[in-house]
Amino acid sequence: MRVVAVTGGGQGIGRAIALHFARAGYAVSVADSDATAGREVLAMLRATKIPVLFVQADVAREREVKSWLARTRRALGPVDVLVNNAGISRKAPLLELTPRDFDRVIATNLRGTLLCAQAAARQMVAARIQGAIINIASTRAFMSEPGTEAYSASKGGIIALTHALAISLGPYRIRVNSISPGWIETRDWKKKAKAAVPKHSRRDRLQHPVGRVGRPEDIAAACMFLAESAGFMTGQNVTIDGGMTVKMIYEE
Fold first, then answer.
1. pTM as predicted
2. Is 250 marked active-site?
């Protein structure tokens, strides 16, 4: 049985990814800093009758990353697919953004991606697995709103890190790609205490050439494609945004 490890898998896009892979027959290991969200997704995963594991971990901390993936190997086997989804933001006006907040976002989003990729790749190399690493970036790597410097910088870094990892891990037949989601509605995929029914206006929908806002399932399906069907793709970034970033928008 193939093993997928998902960071930030307790809620939102990460929860959808974990469930998508479980339903496809993967054993699933989830890391999340939110214990409540992790327990909820663990119960959902167990309902699929596949082997699962949840570990509360902060991906910015090397020791916790190593512990999570070591426990994954012992409980489920070496990792075949890693999805680096964990991410945080600290939106603040540029002139008020503190170095501490900037560093925290970079540590979780960018350093965490590197730490998890290193630890998972070591397992893949040791087990001679031709694995796949999928990093979740963002369209914020290419376009911004005010006050998103930390988040945008971290996501731009993930795209650069992705092609660097692809070159370094190519000799081991490990592929590394990234996905840049656009507007993905996650309110109905949050933990129970924060979940809400999403509502979108006609204007919201028409910002997207496909005529709707994105869903976490859209990103999960793309992760599966990169894991299983994209054997000739590595070092690439795939934008999944319903066409939003290629549509010119004029004020009416």
1. 0.95
2. no
